Amino acid sequence: MACVSEQDYKIAERIEKEGKACVIVVNKWDTIPNKNNESTTHYEQDVREKLRVLDWAPIVYCSAINGNSVEKIISAASLVEKERSRRLGTSILNQVVREAVAFKAPPRTRGGKKEAVFITQHR
């Protein structure tokens, strides 16, 4: 009933810092009385606000006692793994870097302007 604890927040920070994949699972959803779309939206906003560093992570509501939505957890984890292992082409990455540099150029160094000429994704 505590929603997001300090420990949850510390775990979320570590997940973000280390660049790990994540699915936020809200357990004991069966104990929330009078659930509806509005209460679900309110609960999600609360979780998103408290775990801002994981704003990209899907949220799944479940009840481990009666097994509700366990298949949704597996499905969300599968989707997250698929996205995490997606490989972007070098041309796309180079275009993103060019656009970022055009928007805000990196600071100059003592040796003058440095320029990224090529970027690729590490496996």
TrEMBL record:
It comes from the Eukaryota. It comes from Aegilops tauschii subsp. strangulata. This is GTPase Der C-terminal KH-domain-like domain-containing protein. SUPFAM superfamilies: P-loop containing nucleoside triphosphate hydrolases. InterPro entries: P-loop_NTPase. One of its GO terms (cellular component) is chloroplast.
